[in-house]
Amino acid sequence: MLAGFHHVCIKTRDWDRTLRFYRDVLGCTEKIAWRAAPERAVMLDTGGGNYVEIFEDLAYTPAADGAILHLALRTAKLDEVAARVRAFGAKITMEPKDVTIATTNGAGQIPIRIFFCTGPNGEVIEFFQNTVT
Fold first, then answer.
1. What is the distance between the alpha carbons of residues 127 and 71, in angstroms, rounded to a whole number?
2. What is the pTM of this model?
3. CB count, 10 Å around CB of 35?
4. For residue 65, how many other CB atoms are within 10 A of its CB?
5. Which of 76, 96, 74 is nearest to 86 (CA)?
6. Angle 103-104-105 from CA coordinates, rounded to 5°
7. Per-residue pLDDT reduced to its tens digit, 22-34
8. What is the pLDDT of residue 67?
9. Burial (Cβ within 10 Å: 0-12, 13-18, ≥19) of residue 110
10. Measured CA distances, 72 to 40, 46, 78, 116 (Å)
């Protein structure tokens, strides 16, 4: 029935800053764009056919604890991404660190490296590096 993750959608009042963050800082590429300002929309490829979709909405006010807990982006260069996020001025809420997930389904110990930041629209982003999942 399902074929995997397709996209996470984010609303923004600051179109240019949001695009700079996802495209220029994180390296996402534009797949498709539609509509015109002030209601532009774009789908950015994060790699492997997974997308961050962005809708421009000048009246948007982010919820304090929105419905999406966070979006997680896979990377093979976590510390390099953290440096780019920091240089952009985004707030890192959890510094890069190594974590071992103690699974409960018999998959064993899963070593990962992660960090979290707040994106330009208040979205919580986890950056996830591992070789197992």
1. 9
2. 0.83
3. 11
4. 9
5. 96
6. 95
7. 999 999 999 999 9
8. 62
9. middle
10. 24, 11, 12, 9
